[in-house]
Design a protein that fits this description.
It contains 5 helices and 3 strands. It is mostly helical. The two termini are about 35 Å apart. It has one domain. α1 runs antiparallel to α5, α2 packs parallel to α5 and α4 runs antiparallel to α5. The relative contact order is 0.21. The chain has a 3-stranded antiparallel β-sheet with strand order 1-2-3, with no helix packed on it.
Length: about 190
């Protein structure tokens, strides 16, 4: 099966949707707080069993996958015809969407990883010397926001892929006209 723009677009969209769904589930499964248990001069926080940390890392992994596939899809030599990157970056629309896709992917990664790592730290460092601790969890809403930005990022990669495909067609068409013009000038047509 040949690699086509449609196949790459499908992969980018699918990976982005999976990242989004997993991130939303992680946000919904996150407990509001742990239960403080008084010990001798310490408070031990007991947290309910939940898949937030695993789902957060999975969502981030799918975001990375959609970003890598999205980036790779822009510069892949479809039908064996490569196009110089300079030809793609001549299009102002492509440059704008390419940069916004990268920025959005980075922001989505930060919003997915920050609460996931924080939650993992809360679970592993559950003994507190402060007797007034309320057993916190990661900030609510960040995982969900990261999930939505992950979906946005994949959509922006799709727009950049469409713009790159247009720029690629323009470049190849322009080169074909130049080649035919040179052959006509030489009299070999």
């Amino acid at each position: 099966m040949a690699v086509t723009v449609r196949l790459m677009a499908t992969m980018v969209a699918l990976l982005g949707i999976i990242s989004f769904i997993i991130g939303v589930i992680a946000e919904n499964k996150k407990p509001a707080a742990g239960t403080p248990i008084q010990g001798k001069d310490v408070v031990i926080c007991k947290y309910p069993s939940d898949p937030t940390v695993v789902l957060g890392y999975l969502s981030a992994a799918f975001l990375i996958a959609t970003t890598v596939v999205g980036y790779f899809s822009l510069f892949y030599p479809y039908k064996g015809k490569s196009v110089p990157q300079g030809a793609l970056f001549r299009s102002t629309s492509f440059v704008v969407f390419f940069n916004i896709a990268i920025l959005t992917a980075g922001l989505a990664g930060a919003l997915l990883l920050w609460p996931t790592i924080t939650e993992q730290l809360h679970l592993s460092r559950n003994v507190h010397r402060n007797l007034n601790t309320d057993c916190p969890t990661a900030k609510t809403g960040l995982l969900g926001g990261g999930a939505f930005l992950s979906l946005d990022s994949s959509l922006l990669w799709l727009v950049a892929l469409m713009l790159a495909d247009n720029a690629r067609e323009d470049y190849l068409e322009e080169n074909e006209k130049d080649r035919v013009g040179h052959e006509a000038a030489k009299g070999t047509v």
